[in-house]
Amino acid sequence: MKSSDGEKIFTEHPRTRRRLFLFGLLVITGFSLIGLKIAFLASKENQKSRSYFQEDKIHSRLNITDRNGYILATNLEGVSVYIRPQEIQKKSLVAQKLKNIFPDLDKVELIKKLKDGRKFFWLKSLVSPKQEKALFDLGQPGIYFGKREYRFYPYGTLASHVIGYTKINEFDVNYTIISGISGVEKAFENKLAVKKFTKVNKSEIVLSLDLPVQAEVENVLKEWQKRMGAKAGGIVIMNIHNGEIIALASSPDFDANKDRSGAGKNKDASIFFNRVVQGVYEMGSTFKIFPVAQGLEKNLFKLSSLIDTRSFKISSKKIEDKYKFNNKSTVNEIIVRSSNVGAAKIALMVGETGLKEIFSKLGLFAPVNLELKEANLTQPIIPKNWRDIRLATISYGYGMSVSLLHMAKAYAILGNGGFEIEPTILKKNKVGHLGSRVLKKTTSDEILKLLEAIVTDPRGTAKILGSKYYRIGGKTGTAEKVSHDKKGYQKDKVISNFVGIFPLREPKFVIAAFLDEPENNFLQQPCRYSSCTVVPMIKKLIERTGPLMNVIPLHGASKF
Amino acid sequence: MLRFFLFTTLTVSTFVLGLWAYKINYDSRAADERVKELENSILSASKEIKILNAEWAHLNSPERLRKLLGYYFLELRLTPINPDDFISFSEVYWRETSKNVPAKLVGNRLSGIDHEE
């Protein structure tokens, strides 16, 4: 150091520089250590707050909506109640107070639970807001509330078989894991269950169902099931071009909001059975169209060709008709008036390979490739041997069982110009044919003509479907049910069904319906045939759902 | 002199930098808090929306609407839509004056404002 006049006051120690340097280094190291620590703490704190936030939101479940965006299933947050008995002093008094809020509680058991020294137990898994407030107003320590997500189906029983139901897999005081058991809830489990953190979840599963149509379909089905005294029934409406299922109803149905364990005990478990997708039945005359389609495809005959319709015997079984037919009838008449003899003759002409070919083209040999797991597990019942007698009975729908969905798919292929389709429950953005061609266009055209003739011909089995509004074509079928000993058939118990294409001007939908053990008692004689049980239902159904599906009537209204 | 100036600048800038770092630290914490708050309010709002949506769906359930239709039939006279409700364009009733007007012009007239003649 120097004074102002430049004279040295004291001399520099030789090691001063080095000491100063070392001291400086120490200070810098110390401060940077502190700085680092601060940075570390700050970053850790942030992470902590984030992760807490994340945990808060996982284990949710997406909404399921119909094609218009109506919510069919959603997750709501409820409140569960648990108790820590050690924090409660006057146990009997508290038990009485709880009993006042929840009258269904067992007081003795509750006191036992409170007193036996356990640290924790669940009081209720889900309480109503009113009960929550009442509990809160008790101001009692030891009673805790936990978050509990639950699945809510705003429309109750509507489309219950398609949507399916869920169960609670795992729960704790702040989360619930719900998983699907059937229907869409099960089929799309991986997409529905949200495990990753997303701020606002906008994604949802959009189904092909059309809620207004579905509601109308269920309404009509329930009404006619009641009217015809049927045990069960089912209806499916499907787009014949892209396979979208517009409505699918199976009756009886269930309300997935209600506790399933209770339903299993008190009610018939069969309400959970999706009759359209899972139920396989012998379909009766609706099968007759298949051998005819194969015959047309192979140019074996035309609709105007004459076929011998006298009753005949194969393997000691006589094949005959209910009504009188001429000795020779056209293919058209055989189908329009539904002749078993004619159909059997056609099947024998087509032969085993021909019949197998058309069945596999129409997808009747394999489960329907629908997204629902129920459909994938439903195997049609196919005979092992295909002797002539078997060919004959299959031609009119006995000896082979398929589901109604199979029938809808098969008729869709016949009616859409011959293109392969895959039924789907998801809304597709694509329109038009998605599959490859399996049948000739001419075959499809002829089949549509034939189906329309069944409605327009005065002797047709579905003539009451004739409507001034819409052109529809379809085939009726009535099959006697196998008796319980599985040896014969029951004359008085039948499955009546109908599969049709609509509107014929521009085929767009296939409608398939069946009733289990219907009987129309409003006529002079009780009638179980499809023509007097299912067909009137279809008439009503089309008048109600046609306008909802934007099908424009043939000509304008009559009232102006 | 230069040295004094240098030291002063360094000291002052250290203070300023320190203050700045302090402020940034607190600002970022506050921002973090705010983000958390906002996210929570978004979450609770979206939960609320979810509940309202579910309630709206429940209130509009076809079964309930059907009951209401029956209840208010005398006032509203609503019936299910049926094929009779569709009419073709040629059946639309036009006023006398528009009798011989080509369809295209009719369209123009409808889109115009002048409806009261």
Q: Structural class, judged by helices and strands of chain B?
A: mainly alpha
Q: Show unreliable segments of chain A.
A: 51-55, 556-560
- Poorly predicted regions of chain B are 111-117
Content-based structural category of chain A: alpha+beta
| Number of separate helices of chain B | 4
Could you explain the architecture of this structure?
- The complex is a heterodimer of chains A (560) and B (117).
- By secondary structure, chain A is of the alpha+beta class.
- Chain A has 2 domains: 60-84 and 117-206, Alpha-Beta Complex (Penicillin-binding protein 2a (Domain 2)), CATH 3.90.1310.10; 211-548, 3-Layer(aba) Sandwich (Beta-lactamase).
- Helices cover 36% and strands 21% of the residues of chain A.
- Chain A has helices spanning 16-55, 91-101, 107-115, 129-138, 160-163, 183-187, 189-192, 211-227, 260-266, 289-297, 331-336, 340-361, 373-376, 388-395, 404-415, 441-456, 530-548, and strands at residues 60-61, 63-65, 71-83, 121-127, 143-152, 166-171, 176-180, 193-194, 204-206, 232-239, 245-251, 280-282, 306-308, 312-314, 317-319, 328-330, 401-403, 473-482, 489-502, 509-516.
- In chain A, the strands form 7 sheets. In chain A, strands 2, 3, 4, 5 and 9 form a 5-stranded mixed β-sheet that branches. A 5-stranded antiparallel β-sheet of chain A has the order 11-10-20-19-18, sandwiched between helices.
- The longest helix of chain A is centred in the N-terminal third of the chain and has 40 residues, at 16-55.
- Mean pLDDT of chain A is 87; it is low at 51-55 and 556-560.
- With 117 residues, chain B is mainly α.
- Chain B has one domain (2-111).
- Chain B has helices at residues 2-59, 62-71, 73-76, 103-111.
- The longest helix of chain B is centred in the first third of the chain and has 58 residues, at 2-59.
- Classes of the chains: A alpha+beta (560), B mainly alpha (117).
- The interface between A and B is large, with 40 and 34 residues.
